[in-house]
Amino acid sequence: MDPSMGVNSVTISVEGMTCNSCVWTIEQQIGKVNGVHHIKVSLEEKNATIIYDPKLQTPKTLQEAIDDMGFDAVLHNPDPFPVLTDTLFLTVTASLTLPWDHIQSTLLKTKGVTDIKIYPQKRTVAVTIIPSIVNANQIKELVPELSLDTGTLEKKSGACEDHSMAQAGEVVLKMKVEGMTCHSCTSTIEGKIGKLQGVQRIKVSLDNQEATIVYQPHLISVEEMKKQIEAMGFPAFVKKQPKYLKLGAIDVERLKNTPVKSSEGSQQRSPSYTNDSTATFIIDGMHCKSCVSNIESTLSALQYVSSIVVSLENRSAIVKYNASSVTPESLRKAIEAVSPGLYRVSIASEVESTSNSPSSSSLQKIPLNVISQPLTQETVINIDGMTCNSCVQSIEGVISKKPGVKSIRVSLANSNGTVEYDPLLTSPETLRGAIEDMGFDATLSGMTPVQDKEEGKTSSKCYIQVTGMTCASCVANIERNLRREEGIYSILVALMAGKAEVRYNPAVIQPPMIAEFIRELGFGATVIENADEGDGVLELVVRGMTCASCVHKIESSLTKHRGILYCSVALATNKAHIKYDPEIIGPRDIIHTIESLGFEASLVKKDRSASHLDHKREIRQWRRSFLVSLFFCIPVMGLMIYMMVMDHHFATLHHNQNMSKEEMINLHSSMFLERQILPGLSVMNLLSFLLCVPVQFFGGWYFYIQAYKALKHKTANMDVLIVLATTIAFAYSLVILLVAMYERAKVNPITFFDTPPMLFVFIALGRWLEHIAKGKTSEALAKLISLQATEATIVTLDSDNILLSEEQVDVELVQRGDIIKVVPGGKFPVDGRVIEGHSMVDESLITGEAMPVAKKPGSTVIAGSINQNGSLLICATHVGADTTLSQIVKLVEEAQTSKAPIQQFADKLSGYFVPFIVFVSIATLLVWIVIGFLNFEIVETYFPGYNRSISRTETIIRFAFQASITVLCIACPCSLGLATPTAVMVGTGVGAQNGILIKGGEPLEMAHKVKVVVFDKTGTITHGTPVVNQVKVLTESNRISHHKILAIVGTAESNSEHPLGAAITKYCKQELDTETLGTCIDFQVVPGCGISCKVTNIEGLLHKNNWNIEDNNIKNASLVQIDASNEQSSTSSSMIIDAQISNAFNAQQYKVLIGNREWMIRNGLVINNNVDYFMTEHERKGRTAVLVAVDDELCGLIAIADTVKPEAELAIHILKSMGLEVVLMTGDNSKTARSIASQVGITKVFAEVLPSHKVAKVKQLQEEGKRVAMVGDGINDSPALAMANVGIAIGTGTDVAIEAADVVLIRNDLLDVVASIDLSRKTVKRIRINFVFALIYNLVGIPIAAGVFMPIGLVLQPWMGSAAMAASSVSVVLSSLFLKLYRKPTYESYELPARSQIGQKSPSEISVHVGIDDTSRNSPKLGLLDQIVNYSRASINSLLSDKRSLNSVVTSEPDKHSLLVGDFREDDDTAL
Description:
Blueprint: E1 7-15, H1 20-31, E2 36-42, E3 47-52, H2 59-68, E4 72-74, E5 81-83, E6 86-92, H3 100-109, E7 113-119, E8 124-129, H4 136-142, E9 146-148, H5 150-157, H6 161-168, E10 171-177, H7 183-194, E11 199-205, E12 210-215, H8 222-231, E13 236-244, H9 249-256, E14 276-284, H10 289-300, E15 305-311, E16 316-322, H11 328-336, E17 344-352, H12 360-363, E18 377-384, H13 389-400, E19 405-411, E20 416-421, H14 428-437, E21 441-444, E22 460-467, H15 472-484, E23 488-494, E24 499-504, H16 511-520, E25 524-528, E26 536-543, H17 548-560, E27 564-570, E28 575-580, H18 587-596, E29 600-603, H19 616-653, H20 661-670, E30 676-678, E31 681-682, H21 683-699, H22 701-712, H23 718-743, H24 755-777, H25 779-786, E32 791-797, E33 803-810, E34 819-822, E35 831-836, E36 839-842, H26 844-847, E37 853-855, E38 860-861, E39 866-867, E40 872-878, H27 884-897, H28 901-934, H29 936-942, H30 952-970, H31 974-993, E41 996-998, H32 1001-1006, E42 1012-1016, H33 1017-1021, E43 1022-1033, H34 1042-1053, H35 1059-1072, E44 1079-1086, E45 1090-1096, ...
Parallel strand pairs: 42-50, 42-52, 43-46, 50-51, 51-55, 52-53, 53-54
Antiparallel strand pairs: 1-3, 1-4, 1-5, 2-3, 6-8, 6-9, 7-8, 10-12, 10-13, 11-12, 14-16, 14-17, 15-16, 18-20, 18-21, 19-20, 22-24, 22-25, 23-24, 26-28, 26-29, 27-28, 30-31, 32-33, 32-34, 34-40, 35-38, 35-40, 36-37, 36-39, 41-54, 43-49, 44-45, 45-47, 47-48, 48-49, 55-56
Helix pairs in contact: 19-21, 19-24, 21-23, 21-24, 22-23, 23-24, 23-30, 24-31, 24-47, 28-29, 28-30, 28-31, 30-46, 30-47, 31-46, 31-47, 34-35, 36-38, 46-47
């Protein structure tokens, strides 16, 4: 048989299957893949065995195909096993009606047919088949015109002879292998030994620590295999002597004459030549399912066995075989010979099957021991979901026809069925599955129910608040572990919301237990009591309802639906309010349901513009209030100023004497404004009244509303004060005026109508400015909300992922699990997972990362990000309020409404202030009335407007009233209330302009109190991406040049997805100055160890580079140290040119291994002490050292490390100079942590800290009475960010960082940490200045208004009081606006003064604490010399810094003395 026609079989482990529907899906999908002949998926063993055509598929592509379906597929042994094929020769019997090509296409479509050759002259078809999938009979049924050509078959079967002989010469060997720890060990041994010539098959068992090898002794010896295993680092010794697979000469003879084997379990045979018998064997020594499959696979491979069923429970095997070819005794021996060769087999019975062959009786030479009644067993299956007798009959009818079922009785009353069956032909599990397939819930009694995703009625749902989740892997961890727990049907975890939605069986498990499971995984978990919040709420507008029966129709139809929890329809408003379970039903389904009843339904349009955040309404209303007040206030002020001037003028005329009543009357009649229209009503008072009314009631409308609300809640705020002051002034004036008119007074009374307009103008202006400031900070939020897409394109796919239809829907109608199409340039409407397509996505709006992110099937996408170049299909995972964007919006909203402690203090102050001022003003009134009656002279002397024309009592009362109203007017706590918010608003606004987002007043006010700043390492102090620091060549450069190593390594790693691999490839491309690399084949990754592959086509790279090798050697001198002298570079280059020319047609292939020590030792390479020393050196500096071997020779060492950000050292120095303690906290090892700390100048380090420990550490620092700021990049630091007094998320504000942190630095710049603390200090200083302004006005103004300073001549009119009060508010606002002038210090301005003082820390100055305990690993104690050096270095440093600061000249020369202790950044082995 032509070897190119081979068919291979491979077994792939599949994780993530939950039920038979997963199995069915995989079998359907992969079965359709071109080149796949057969696939069998096992849920119990979690694997898939695939028979495929190696010309069309490889194990890797099949693994990826399963991966793309969302399961985790792992290829433990990438080497496929060859599958036996048979060739059938079929001849045309009758006149052939079908054309030949039709026969060919029909047969090729059949699973199990690998090739067809047609010989039209001989009227013969040669069909190559896989006997385990298809048999001759099935082929004949497909094309009835063809019949089997026995003659040709016999002729052809000679080709099998060598094969069967080879099989007969195989030996089974068992070896004990020690030291294996994981599946990667087993796959390494299987891969390496399986490739040796003469080894047919190898299976390594991790549990038994043994290897079973089938090999050919004439090609390879036991000793040789043992040596190979030991070379990989595993001790091995032979367990038992090799044992030949015994098949006697007669068996071999019979094998030559073999008929075609039918598929497993096939019942009928071709009558022309078969003679089937059945034998039952009792087998002792089977332990598990793998024994069963081992025996079944070995025996079914024998040509004369048509089917075999092995039962582990009954320790039996039932074998159908061709009695003319083999005896039961031979079969017994064959079973005993199956590895591990420990089975004890005895024959139980033999039964001759009916045979149509006429010569069957003559062939039957074996005496038969017939058992009339095969043994039967009985099982009880619990069946749920039966409703009537027709269910009972249908179950009995279907199941009784199943093979092996003797009888079945189903009881509707007991909800169960009793089945009598033959255990050799069927099993309880098969029967249970068959009943489930009919749509009933079936469980075996005594077994726990097998839960499927679609559980019965007994499911409940609970929500659990989960804290401490940091990234997607935490989510996966919780989901994976909880699904395994009994009684849990499904779980969905939302990372941003920190919430888990769990469906469970309340009979088996309760929410507190579920929370306990999550806590055991290391997360915080509490059950959310009001679980309603997880339900979806839908508001719909329903049109077309006419009466109450329509309402009832809709409500009753909806409540019948599974998943709808509550429904209420209002006829009057045409609205429906529906609560539903988003897991079961979605808004689209609900709308369809209503529409199917004949009504129109649409979503209530929501306002998406974030208008509630931009303060537009408030700004509008206060502006209106201000303009109304101003419009009426200007004439009032004009009148007042005119009156004051005139009064002053007359006063000077009369030499300041008080006028008599007659003089007043004369004077008034002479002035136009004082002329009386009616008795007691002057033009002036009338105009003032008319101008005051609109202001009082229209301008002050909002104040009245606010004051009313405050009093209703029994609190007094600023609005109460304002209303009090203006209303009293207005009412008092109106009363006086009415009294004067009633008395027909000749002299006009003095009114206070001018007070309200003046007061309202200033207050409205203050409020207007305040809201404008607030609106500014909300712009960021409005921007976030506007990111949301408004529509989504939902597509429908068929089973082959072919697009059937697409429709545009509102984004609120997208349901979990919908498939959404996102075109290039479109926004992602919801969070989801890519299922098809590749594209780059701009997530900068969410993460701040400018670089677009590549997305491929399986990647997650965030709502609001923009798709760039490829069309994607995504599956929605989080919709509506659960999307990342919605969560971020919610957080920012919460942050902006949070009040800083100082602000709360201001409000509290107002609460006490109002009653106090009212009390003071009443006291002033009473005191002046008493003083006036006791001693009128005082009033007469100090009352500015006193004239004799008014009665004494009126004068006293008016004077007292004027004083008390002035007190009310001046003492408004408005400025107190403005002091904090305006400063915070401006501060956060300025921060945002400078790339520092501060959430609310609290962090801004807290940051200045911070005493300790804790930094995370990866991604915060360092870039978070590995970079190649050094490449070291370990062989002479004439053996393999530096460029050749780079070309080989770069090509090998180009297939790796590991960050280190990506770093190496990037470096190699840069060094070789190329975008394309060679070709890499047979690529294999062993996690935690390394990679192995073969590399070709690199000659072009070397050819391209070979002209400037010398220049490159000079350029790379600092990066690459070549042990051998560089003299050979010219000779090596000439050799490469020759090689290039000679290999133009025959590219050389290199076998490459890249990985750690363990990987090299495992592949049989020796690492000498020198190389080990270099590796240890690098590891001590916190780098990863990777070894490279080409063609089994160690030739290079690559050092990779995460690099420190350039500004880190400076930022930390400035923080220290600001008097803050700086701590480094990292999950990394102590070596790396110490190395990084020494580079940036941090002396206190906590290494190997878990995320949950970070929280504990922050708590610990807080308990010492220190305020802590935590700076992190937001993934593993989020719990600590939330715990710290101020959490600062750095750079690319990742989703979780935004949630946890109080301050987000938009730019990835550590100097912004300094700027944020600096800004906080400036803002708090400004708030304090504001309080001083506010309180000075009040503390000085109130006594003056009350008339305490009257003896010195200090008297205030009410309008002056209100002007002073407004001035205080305006001055506070202006003072806050001064913050706008804040400029963030630049890198240069920091660097100049700092550079002189920055000195790296020597390792001895750094204390490293490991884990959460405080046991520090201090460096070894310094000797006397070191101490002297350190001391002298410090003193010289300070001297130098003084000198430099005097001359303000920066010398970039390094500090000579630092070289004595050893500058830590210098890599001795890198420099040449």
